Amino acid sequence: MTYSGATPAQLLPRIGQAWRAALLTCLPPRLKSLLSRQPPRLVVCPAAGLDAPVAELWRIVDEQRDFLGELTRDGKETLAQLLPGTRFDWQDTHVELPAQAVLTRELQLPIQVKNQLHQTVMYEMNRLTPFQPAEVYFDVRTHGSVARHTKIAVTLALCRRDQLAPWLQRLRQAGAAPNDLTWIGAWPNANLLPLNERPRRRYLTTWMTTTLIIITFAFVTATLATPLWQKQQQHRALTKALRQIKRQADLIPALRTELEQARAGSMAVLNYHAQAARLTDLWRELTTRLPDDTWIQTLNYVNQEVDMRGQSAAATALIGLLEPAPGINSVHFSSPVMQLSNTGKERFQIAFTYRHDPPAPPPQ
Rounded mean pLDDT of 103-132? Predict the structure, then answer.
């Protein structure tokens, strides 16, 4: 990481870049390529050794580098005068030094100075290097703890201020105050320029950019989460429907059993009635076969057993009249025949069995 004593407001762009990078990994390739385009930057590349009075001006967008022209260190023209007709659409100016113009040194410092690393290196500059703090531009980078977490490994990068000051002054005079001072092969976010010499950012633009990033991130999150939420709702609805169907399916065996029991009961009643003798048929047979001088006073029918009482002019002849009747069997007198003096008829009590075979049921 790079530590340069940045304030929270100055760290916002870095936080925004981290969020933006995390967001881009979640997007489809086409949308990712559309949103991953970086804003244009003006890159100033002084000649090797920083002694040459000419620097190249480049406009860089992503991986595309467009050469704009050259800037002289001792000139007085502004960029608008030097580059007529050029589209000034960049927001930041970066100074990219040749690698040989920057000195680097690996250090180990007590871990207690981790939170004040920049200030510590500045105070110890004359001990760590041959220069005084006011003589150099520098930046530091940590690599983690060493020596059983008692020290931190640090890379110190610096360049001489007297060689760069004329160039920085020239850029400010040309209307392109530098935001970053880096070098070829520098680590990410490296910046040798002190905070007090960096141009103040427009906080409104920064806040708007951060807000837009947050809104975009929230929108993309909602877009990605909505199908999941819909699937979850559908899953819950299907689960509820399946539970209702299962409860209804569990009732089917009980209902089938009840229907079978009801059907069995109905069939038993129908069979009973089908097998039971029809009294109307019995009355018809008796009416047809018994003579007109015979009447029946009582007739009891219980479980195919018939007990019949009445009077007749010739009761003894009734047995022979009833025996040939269909369904009548075992005809006999259950008590002696008595002669009635007042009517001249005979009182009888005859018992027999009566079983009437029902007709065959129609084919199913």
Answer: 89
